[in-house]
Amino acid sequence: MAHEHKLEIFRGLWKFKSNTQKIWGVLAFLTFVTAIEVVLGIYKPAALTDTYVLGMKLLNWIFIILTLVKAYYISWDFMHLRDEKSAMRRAIVWTPIFLVLYLVFILLVEANYIFEIYKDGFIKWNF
């Protein structure tokens, strides 16, 4: 039995008549998000580069968020995650999130240990 692809994006806000129109709509969305990233990367507004949030520049947070939006949308639409059951979607999305958080935790703990060794230990800062 053939499975029909949904000809809509953004949870049904935009509906298309054919697969070709849908591909162009997806291309337009991804191009728009990429253009925002490129413009911000070229101009680097002072308001975004001078503002720090959680120890990182606001501009970097914007880049990370826009990149995650694109990655999520590509996997949602092109990998057909929207057609899967919710358990499968959660397994695919949450597993890398937990693994990345675990990696960040390990890196921070180890970095703190190395910092303390260099600060209080017998090894000098020579770099």
From TrEMBL:
Stored InterPro entries: Cyt_c_oxidase_su4_prok
Keyword list, A-Z: Cell membrane, Membrane, Transmembrane, Transmembrane helix
TM region(s), chain numbering: 23-43, 58-79, 91-115
Subcellular location: Cell membrane
Pfam families in the cross-refs: COX4_pro
The organism's place on the tree of life at top rank: Bacteria
Topology within the bilayer: Multi-pass membrane protein
Main location: membrane
Protein name: Cytochrome C oxidase subunit IV family protein
Source organism (scientific name): Maribacter litopenaei
